[in-house]
Design a protein that fits this description.
Helix content is about 50%, strand content about 15%. With about 500 residues, it is an alpha+beta fold. A hairpin with a 6-residue loop joins β10 (about 430-440) and β11 (about 445-450).
Length: about 500
């Protein structure tokens, strides 16, 4: 093995590798920095875009809320007398709800509930108009019911009196409070009702006023249709005239009677009396069914307003009946009888008038009537004088008591006669001495002096003469008996 001198090796590759490593590291950091910068820019862009998106959604949601609020204000301006403050609290929820739905990460069931709540709030302006429409229609119906209060198809006279007061408040004809109230039902929905004088009226109640299913008013049942059905059981169609007539056995025999109307006219009438029991039996089963078709409450209302006895001021002579009252079989039996009698009187009647002929009589003229009345009035007072039992004569000394007695008696005979008697009195020795009484004749044709000691008979004749004339004067006719008078 030969020996060689050591050789020096110059390592040019390591330096080159180091330089490459440095270049690689520098390039890597430059790439990372560039990549980081790009990533940050992308994130910023995404955040900015998301922020713009969120701002856009919020602005859109706010615009939606403002639109609903404007509709509320518009509705309020159309109905300035109604209080709409409660509406605005509901509207303030719109933006919050929409933002939660559009931007949140809520569970599906929560989002569903929020959407329902949003839909209910958004519909409030439409619901408000519908509520007022129903209220107005209900009021129109109520006014018709109120006009017929106490009659069939009218308002229950003995029911809730508040509805009449609230109606006047609603129409601004009476003082009171009225407002629309909006409240949450706790399940994402919203309720709306009218509050009038502190009493609540829902849309459903107002919509059902006409069919008497509102729960806020009580309407007297109208039995006219049922009564017509009952009546058809008592009648049949005549095959010749094609008109309804009573069935055989309903009418009795023809009778002739003399009757007088309210003016004193006399008539001969031919009538046939109706057989009540027979007629009622023909309709008995149908009447029973008709009554059974009424609820206990309807029976109570019908009894109080239609069948029960009342005073001239429509006050019930008995107690106000309720639905519970008709759990008593005796009350139900009483109702059945009164109901049947009501139908019979209104639709059948007591009799059928076949013909009526006026009885002609000679009627006196007005002068004869006046003369007869005057004569009868005078003779009536003459009889009073003749039948008066006390002595009308007096002594020269008369007291106030005896004077008033004569004056009072004269007042019984004729209006004005008492005032026509004047005493003629003079004082002597401290005592009043009666010279007499002056009696003025009512026809204005003189007077007579009644003096002390004059007979009772003569005093009576003077009073009779005084009555001739005035409002009781009448002309004598040739066939009249002589009028008894006294000539001074």
């Amino acid at each position: 093995m030969s020996y060689e001198n050591p050789r020096a090796v110059i390592d040019t590759q390591s330096a080159q590798g180091l330089q490459q490593l440095q270049n690689t590291i520098a390039g890597t950091f430059a790439g990372v920095a560039k990549s980081y910068k790009a990533d940050q820019k992308e994130k910023r862009d995404k955040l900015n875009a998301n922020a713009k998106r969120i701002d856009g959604i919020k602005a859109k949601n706010q615009e939606y809320e403002d639109n609903i609020r404007n509709k509320m204000y518009e509705f309020g301006s159309e109905n300035p007398s109604l209080n709409h403050e409660a509406w605005l609290a509901a509207v303030d929820r719109i933006n919050e709800i929409k933002n939660t739905i559009d931007l949140g990460n809520e569970k599906p069931e929560v989002v569903t509930r929020l959407r329902q709540e949003l839909s209910a709030i958004s519909a409030l302006p439409t619901l408000g108009r519908a509520l007022l429409t129903d209220m107005s229609e209900g009021i129109i119906g109520l006014k018709g019911f109120i006009e017929n209060t106490g009659d069939e198809g009218g308002l229950d006279r003995y029911g809730n009196p508040d509805i009449v007061e609230d109606l006047k408040t609603w129409e601004n004809t009476a003082k009171g409070s009225r407002k629309q109230v909006v409240e949450s039902d706790g399940n994402g929905g919203w309720r709306m009702y009218l509050d009038i004088n502190g009493r609540r009226y829902t849309r459903e109640q107002l919509a059902n006023v006409q069919n008497n299913d509102s729960g806020i008013v009580s309407i007297v049942p109208n039995q006219s249709d049922n009564f017509a059905v009952y009546s058809n059981l008592v009648r049949e169609i005549d095959p010749n005239t094609k008109k309804p007539v009573f069935k055989p056995g309903v009418l009795g025999k023809i009778q002739t009677e003399q009757r007088t109307d309210e003016k004193g006219n006399k008539f001969l009438v031919e009538v046939q009396k109706v057989n009540k029991d027979f007629s009622k039996n023909l309709a008995k089963s149908q009447i029973k069914a008709g009554i059974a078709g009424m609820s206990q409450s309807e029976k109570a209302v019908y009894w109080n307003n239609i069948l029960a006895e009342k005073t001239a001021n429509n006050e019930l002579k008995g107690d106000v009946m309720t639905a519970e009252s008709f759990e008593d079989p005796k009350m139900l039996e009483k109702f059945n009888k009164a109901y049947t009698d009501k139908w019979f009187k209104a639709n059948i009647g007591e009799e059928v008038i076949i013909s009526s002929k006026k009885i002609e009589v000679d009627e006196p003229n007005q002068s004869e009537i006046k003369r007869a009345e005057a004569k009868a009035s005078y003779e009536k007072r003459v009889a009073v004088v003749d039948n008066y039992k006390d002595d009308l004569s007096f002594n020269p000394y008369i007291t106030n008591e005896s004077f008033n007695k004569i004056k009072s008696f004269a007042g019984q005979l004729s209006i004005g006669l008492a005032d026509a008697i004047e005493p003629q009195i003079e004082e002597k020795n401290g005592k009043e001495k009666v010279k007499g009484f002056t009696v003025k004749f009512l026809d204005g044709k003189g007077s007579a002096l009644v003096t002390p000691g004059m007979s009772n008979k003569k005093v009576r004749e003077i009073l009779k003469r005084a009555m001739i004339g005035g409002q009781y004067f009448y002309e004598k006719e040739p066939n009249d008996k002589p009028v008894r008078t006294w000539t001074p």
